[in-house]
Design brief:
heterodimer, A: alpha/beta, Rossmann fold, six-stranded mixed sheet, four-stranded antiparallel sheet, 7 helices, globular, B: alpha+beta, six-stranded mixed barrel, elongated, binds adenosine-5'-diphosphate, binds magnesium ion, MacB_PCD (chain B), transmembrane helix (chain B), transmembrane (chain B)
Chain lengths: 225, 401
């Protein structure tokens, strides 16, 4: 296995002076290609903060952050935007689909936004992904017409659209009932073993963590153990 | 940018009522713009037509000769000069210049005239008149006497005279009756009233008499030459330029109508600038309306914008989506407003033919293309602020952790 993401001595503070909160305090973490990891820790321990930094949406206050050998801590916004588009997929607790678009259009978005149009090959790939997540018959439904579990599966298909090396999922089942949550986790497990996509999934649900092969515990702004 | 266009259209289509209202608002602004253009332009045509329709556009006369000092260059000269007031400047060589003037492309009609003062005498009654001798068949060359005729004809024959209705009423005469015309040179001719006109201008209706050039020659004792040549132009707005040109080509004094009508021109200019002010306000209203609507939409769509950014949409892409929305709104509102403006203005007769008391709007002067272009540019401008606000949305702040 090869190193996909490396984080060294990562520090993230919010606010200044009196109001300063140190969320990450010298965190070290290495993710290897093909890993399926659960990111655990009490609420407020900094899981979401870490995920947004790993997803290049947030800059760390200091520390090293490389992925695929690229120094992301030093990159500019435009470079990060493109890097994110190509190499990172997101699944959020709230699905965050575009409400005026169909399931298929939502899944195609990451490819179309780079190509400048919805290509035929993107359409084919998106349709295959929707089939893969069991939504072949919901392809042309507008996002708000789908159930919570269906929306989250569309979000997973969208995250996989550009064949990213890393998928970051922040409490992806936090808003789902037990059955839907189990379905979503089973799906993630299958895709991980089929495609070697690396998943990092934050949760505080032991049942969810049980689906993952590695457990990463965040406490006091550091990775424990 | 095709994809940005798709998203922009989807966003506009998502809230149809709001988008329709916005476009309707823009269209109303464009309608006001077009209506003002047509009204101000139409009023100008109407007023010019009314004022200049019955007068010469350019009047050609002999250059007035000033006395020349015969003293040498040395020494100071104190000179009091009085312009000759009774001197009749005469165009002795009108025949030579006329073909030259008539050949100019901007000239529509010419009329050689001998003018002077006199009295119409009928029994005991005497009325002062301005006598104008014109070439046969050219009574209507400058003022449309034919169109204003209330009885008789403008055929002057050998001894005919055409007078205005005011004069005819004063003297109690009608067509076919005989009057005596007495010039200020004390020459008298007996003439038959050939026609009576009523043009609506007191100066003509009560104090003008048209006779033939031959009659005028006898009355004013002028065996040759004419007093002036009056000219109608194809385009009355070109009077200044044409006058300069005629003057340059003939060496004669050519006076455009604008010289005696500075007030009218000032009035028209003032009217045009107040019209422009109203049009500018219409455009500003459009810009503010589009900007505020898009700003609201930006705010409402913050979560989506954040997610698009997280999925790899660049700032420029987001800006493109919102500027495209502004452009579409401006273009659509502009086209609809211009279409409605044209439809609303079309039933109005053009100001040249407008009945008295009618609204002199000119459908040809709606400035439709300008309205559409300015509105679209305005809407693009209006969308820049919301677009930049959208591009600055921080994905982290809307993802909700
Ligand atoms: N933008 C922010 N400004 C200030 N404090 C923040 C901000 N984002 C997160 N925090 C704080 O950082 C801490 C960690 O938050 P988070 O990463 O969301 O934890 P978790 O996802 O593990 O619950 C919390 O105390 C939270 O209040
Ligand atoms: Mg969290």
């Amino acid at each position: 296995m090869s190193v996909l993401v490396e984080v060294r001595d990562l520090i993230k503070t919010f606010g200044e002076g009196e109001a300063e909160t140190r969320v990450l305090r010298g965190l070290d973490l290495t993710l290897e290609t093909g890993e399926l990891s659960a990111l655990l820790g009490p609420s407020g321990s900094g899981k979401s903060t870490l995920l947004t930094i790993l997803g290049t949406l947030l800059k760390p206050s200091s520390g090293l952050h490389t992925m695929l050998g690229v120094d992301l801590a030093a990159a500019r916004d435009a470079e990060l935007t493109e890097f994110r588009n190509r190499h990172i997929g997101f699944v959020f607790q709230f699905h965050h689909l575009l409400p005026d678009f169909t399931a298929l259009e939502n899944v195609m978005f990451p490819t179309a936004v780079m190509a400048g149009r919805e290509t035929a090959s993107a359409r084919t790939r998106a349709a295959e992904l929707l089939e893969r997540v069991g939504l072949a018959d919901r392809m042309h439904f507008l996002a708000p017409k789908l159930s919570g579990g269906q929306k989250q599966r569309v979000a997973i298909a969208r995250a996989l659209m550009n064949r990213p090396e890393l998928v970051l999922a922040d409490e992806p089942t936090g808003n789902l009932d037990r059955d839907s949550a189990e379905q979503v986790m089973a799906l993630i497990g299958e895709i991980n073993s089929e495609e070697e996509t690396t998943f990092l999934i934050s949760t505080h649900d032991e049942n969810i963590a049980a689906h993952c092969r590695r457990r990463i515990l965040v406490r006091d702004g550091r990775v424990e153990g | 940018m095709r994809y940005g266009l798709k998203i922009a259209m989807r966003y506009l289509g998502a809230s149809k009522a709001q988008t329709s209202l916005l476009i309707a608002g823009v269209a109303v602004g464009v309608f006001v713009f077009i209506f003002m253009s047509a009204l101000i332009g139409g009023l100008a045509v109407f007023l010019l037509q009314r004022t200049v329709g019955d007068i010469a556009h350019v009047t050609v006369e002999a250059p007035s000769r000033d006395a020349v000092s015969l003293m040498g260059e040395q020494g100071d000269v104190l000179l009091v000069e009085q312009r000759a007031t009774n001197q009749r400047t005469l165009l002795r060589t009108a025949d030579a210049f006329l073909p030259l003037i008539e050949a100019l492309p901007g000239v529509a009609a010419t009329s050689q005239q001998i003018v002077g003062n006199g009295f119409v005498v009928r029994g005991q009654a005497r009325a002062p008149v301005g006598i104008t001798g014109v070439e046969p068949g050219k009574v209507s060359a400058i003022a449309d006497i034919d169109g204003a005729l209330i009885s008789g004809t403008t055929e002057l024959g050998n001894s005919g005279v055409v007078i205005g209705s005011g004069l005819a009423d004063d003297l109690g005469i009608g067509v076919g009756q005989v009057v005596r015309l007495q010039s200020d040179r004390d020459v008298e001719r007996t003439l038959v009233v050939a026609g009576i006109f009523e043009i609506g201008l007191d100066a003509l209706d009560s104090r003008a008499a048209f006779v033939t050039l031959a009659t005028a020659r006898t009355l004013f004792d002028l065996p040759q030459g004419v007093s002036r040549i009056e000219i109608k132009l194809v385009d009355l707005n070109a009077a200044d330029r044409e006058a300069r040109r005629i003057s340059a080509e003939t060496g004669l004094k050519a006076t455009p109508w604008t010289e005696g009508n500075a007030q009218l021109l000032d009035g028209l200019r003032a009217q045009a600038s107040s019209g422009n002010l109203i049009k500018a306000f219409a455009l500003i209203t459009i810009v503010i309306g589009v900007a505020s609507a898009l700003l609201l939409s930006t705010y409402r769509r913050r979560p989506e914008i954040g997610i698009m950014r997280a999925m790899g949409a660049s700032r420029l892409f987001v800006i493109g989506v919102f500027v495209t929305q502004g452009t579409l709104i401006g273009l659509l509102g502009g086209l609809i407003g211009a279409g409605l403006g044209f439809l609303a203005l079309s039933p109005f007769p053009v100001p040249e033919l407008a009945p008295p008391g009618g609204l002199p709007v000119d459908v040809r002067q709606g400035a439709y293309d300008l309205a559409i272009v300015l509105t679209t540019l305005g809407a693009i401008l209006a969308s820049i602020l919301p677009a930049r606000a959208a591009a600055r949305v921080d994905p982290v702040s809307v993802i909700g952790q």
